[in-house]
Amino acid sequence: MKWTESDNNILVDLYPTTESSEIAKKLGVSLSRVYNRANFLGLKKERGFASRINKKRWQEGRMEGCRKGHYKKGNAPMNKGLKITEYMSPEAIEKHKKTRFKKGNLSHNYRPVGSQRIDKDGYIEVKIKDPNVWELKHRYIWSKHNGKIPKSYKVRFIDGDRGNFNINNLEIISEAELMNENTIHRYPQEVRELIKLQSKLNKKLNGTKQNARR
Fold this sequence. Notes:
single chain; mainly alpha; Homing Intron 3 (I-Ppo) Encoded Endonuclease, Chain A; 2 domains; three-stranded antiparallel sheet; two-stranded antiparallel sheet; 5 strands; rod-shaped
């Protein structure tokens, strides 16, 4: 549709005091076309328009969902499809700008790097990077001393104390070894000791081979 002189006159007459959705219906065009044409012609809603419309909607029950501070399922927000200038006064917009989250500002729940927390399993995590990167503290300490933890390996507390982060109390163990250790508990004590000794011997031999290659 091309905007005729008659269409433009209707828009100029109605736009300041009439809901844009009603104008769109009257002219048989989309709401966005009304907004775009009004902007092209430099039209604005008159002062106090937003407050009047909100009061009208309230009275008609179109704002029923927000009477108790929330929207009920199926109810549309009162400002749906409207520009901010259509439901807020210039003064209110300026006040609203002061409360907006500005780029570079820290949120109220920001935790600095180095902060600690306890996860759902009772392990301590430490924040290692912004904006929100956390790592298990015992893994972080072990890797700081020994380098990157190989895939499929775990770091565990030798004495079982999750609060003892001394590097000498931390050891690396493969998931396969950990599974074997969990399995050997079904064997008699003497057999368990032999399996543990065999595991330690294998570790020492592997370490010797790796040093020899360097």
